[in-house]
Amino acid sequence: MAPIAPRSGDAVFANVERVNAELFTLTYGAIVRQLLTDLEEVEEVNKQLDQMGYNIGIRLIDEFLAKSNVSRCVDFKETAEVIAKVGFKMFLGVSASVTNWDADGTCCSLILEDNPLVDFVELPDTCQGLYYCNVLSGVIRGALEMVSMKTEVTWVRDMLRGDDAYELKVKLLKQVPEEYPYKDDE
Amino acid sequence: MDGAAIYSLFIINKSGGLIFYKDYGSAGRMDTNDSLRLASLWHSMHAISQQLSPTVGVQGSSFSKPTPSISIAFSLLQHTKTEGMYAINRRLPSLDLSKSILAGTKFFVVCEPGTQRMEALLKFIYELFADYVLKNPFYEMEMPIRCELFDLNLLQAVQKDRVALLSR
């Protein structure tokens, strides 16, 4: 039997169950608002959103692998392309572009022109330090960690803060080789 | 043999623990201890085979060009064409292995020798796992799977597969 061919982000997106985009956007808004009320500190909210994203990411990776038929990427460049073109498309319905590679190919930027999370959002003066979409960076970090890549994901540009696009900087810290046997404490 | 397409299914987590085991059909039922033992055996064999794999860095390690010592040690393992999936042909029921190629969870089914299209079933089981297990907010990662919806959908998939097999 021939290997199952990878599917494009569009194809997967067309086949999964979707919810109303507004419901999605408003639900996310409600979560962020509630976190602000509960935690009071904007910094804490950023952290909490990142942690929530991480928890989503470590589970989401399996769905991504199961439904997209993507197999092992050759290098980090391919990984970034797959996240931008297949991953974002599949789960958010938008695709991103990859630019700003550094010389050794371990750091790049994902640029989102369109971001369904922020459709109705205007940041008030009191929350200027808030990374509203911080959940996304957590998702990427969590998902990549499950496929043995330690990364650091930070926001460089944010339209809510007056920039012209959303830019996520993804930096590959190290690739953890799969090791057998696992140590007793793991 | 009551026409069972597969005899049993094992799902093994990253660190080798059996998180799901189910018997289908009447042949070869096992008690809990046996299934746990067998699961850790599959896990270790898979781990060893990866270490011995001549193609470094490819995790769905391939046995297409084994060195002599490897081929002696793993004459049991036969690589099928799909990356990350193996068939182990034994005289009795054969074993199909699929794993969530990169994320570390492994899926095994024991099936009738020569059963075709096991890859498709395994892939479908993986999708069910992603949908009904991982999306359950109360499922703890790496812990035994106790999700009714997963059981239900799995049973349907296996039965459908059995019907498809009989009609061939």
TrEMBL record, chain A:
Q: Which CDD domains match?
A: TRAPPC3_bet3 (cd14942)
Kindly indicate whether the keyword Endoplasmic reticulum belongs to this entry. Answer: yes
Which keywords belong to this entry?
Answer: Endoplasmic reticulum, ER-Golgi transport, Golgi apparatus, Transport
Q: Which domain of life is it from?
A: Eukaryota
Q: Which GO terms describe its biological process?
A: Golgi vesicle transport
What Gene3D superfamilies would the database entry show? Trafficking protein particle complex subunit 3
Q: Which GO terms describe its cellular component?
A: endoplasmic reticulum; Golgi apparatus; TRAPP complex
Q: Does the keyword Mitochondrion apply?
A: no
Coiled-coil stretches, from where to where? Answer: none
Quote the subcellular location field of this record: Endoplasmic reticulum; Golgi apparatus, cis-Golgi network
* Recorded family membership: Belongs to the TRAPP small subunits family. BET3 subfamily.
Quaternary structure (record) = Homodimer.
Protein task: May play a role in vesicular transport from endoplasmic reticulum to Golgi.
Q: What is this protein called?
A: Trafficking protein particle complex subunit
Source species, please? Answer: Stephania yunnanensis
UniProtKB/TrEMBL annotation, chain B:
Pfam family name, one: Sybindin
Q: Which InterPro entries match?
A: Longin-like_dom_sf, TRAPPC
Annotated signal sequence range: none
GO cellular component terms given for this protein: endoplasmic reticulum; Golgi apparatus; TRAPP complex
Q: Fetch the SMART domains from UniProt.
A: Sybindin
Question: Please, one GO biological process term?
Answer: endoplasmic reticulum to Golgi vesicle-mediated transport
Concerning SUPFAM superfamilies, the annotation shows: SNARE-like
Task: List UniProt keywords, sorted A-Z.
Answer: Endoplasmic reticulum, ER-Golgi transport, Golgi apparatus, Transport
As for subcellular location, the record says: Endoplasmic reticulum; Golgi apparatus, cis-Golgi network; Golgi apparatus
Quaternary assembly: Part of the multisubunit transport protein particle (TRAPP) complex.
Could you say which protein family the record assigns here?
A: Belongs to the TRAPP small subunits family. TRAPPC4 subfamily.
Protein name as catalogued: Trafficking protein particle complex subunit
